[in-house]
Amino acid sequence: MKRTPPRSGLRPIGGGIGYSREFLERLAQILVHTGHSPKKLAREFREICDGLEEPARDWDPAYLNYLADLPHVIARWHADPQFVDSQGAPVPLPLKSRHLSLTSLITRVLPGEDPSAVVDSLIRLRGIRRRGRFYVPTNRQMLLIRHSGRVHGLIALLGILRTIEYNVSRATSSSRIFQRTAVNPRFPLRALPAFHRGLKTLAAKFLWTADGNMRRREARFRSEPTIRLGVGVFAFEDPLTTGTRAHKVRPHGTRRAVSKSRRTARRRVQGKR
User: Fold this and answer.
1) Is residue 208 part of a domain?
2) Residue 145 has pLDDT above 90, yes or no
């Protein structure tokens, strides 16, 4: 059967990750190693899937790699001394040139890939924009939304599953992959929005530092074998509250306190008459 090609500028590249079997296998290993029955897991998963509809589009695991690698072009544009000006800002680049160009940058970051397809993807995902005959990055980071955002979220999910599964099943005390969390069991509901905003700012600085650390080692050991290494920051809520009705509930006691103070004030005024 002939396969429908992906949309222009969003094509997958060779060598995919993220087949559904790997997601399920990693999660099952974690649960079984922590005491869950595999027979019960199989029964529960069948029950869950029975209530789901078939997706509108087929899953292409290679697209996960492609989407994961695109931001690296933007990061190098902001950090490579050849592609920044005297103030450290990324220089506008023509598409092609005998000297520095967007094509030469892409070829350096993603060797073997079609630069025109990468440019189309970066424009579609609003990672770059035109300025006359030149291109400039829209920001130091790429904000992925809708379908691309959902797919990109699987990168973090798969990474978390791989790390936890390895740590709980095979790692030794000296070979554990870094995994740390900070959990507060009584966090105030009204403070959630401000906390999430602050975490975004803190995480952006931390991740840029971590990415710079990886890029320096990439440049230093350029001729040696490589892997894809990722570092992530995320928050989790128990129970999930953000975006739900519970998040919009007025904190207990606020209205009652106001009403009581008003009643007290009215009684004082009536007593003076």
Assistant:
1) yes
2) no
- Rounded to two decimals, the pTM is 0.70
Task: Identify whether the C-beta of residue 76 lies closer than 8 Å to the C-beta of residue 142.
Answer: no
Question: Cα separation of 206 and 96, whole Å?
Answer: 34
On whether both 267 and 210 belong to a single domain, the answer is yes
Same domain, 131 and 185: no
Q: Is the pLDDT of residue 254 over 60?
A: no
Main-chain phi, psi angles of 84, to 5 degrees: -125, 155
Q: Cα separations (Å) of 187 from 105, 167, 190, 235, 239?
A: 45, 28, 9, 13, 11
Which of 137, 172, 193 is where one domain is finished? 137
Mean pLDDT value of segment 32-40: 96
3 pLDDT more than 50: no
The pLDDT of residue 264: 56
Phi, psi of 88 (to 5 degrees): 85, 10
Cα-to-chain-centroid distance, residue 66: 14
* 20 closest CA partner among 47, 59, 49: 59
Question: Among 16-30, 90-104, 125-139, where is mean pLDDT lowest?
Answer: 16-30
CA distance 107 to 80: 14
Query: With contact defined as beta carbons under 8 Å apart, do 119 and 106 qualify?
Result: yes
Check pLDDT > 70 for residue 271.
Answer: no
| Cα atoms found within 13 Å of the Cα of residue 92, Cβ hemisphere only | 8
Residue at 185 is within a domain: yes
State residue 272's pLDDT score. Answer: 54
The predicted structure's pLDDT at residue 250: 55
Length of the chain: 273
> Is residue 33 domain-resident?
no
CA atoms within 13 A on the CB side of 119: 19
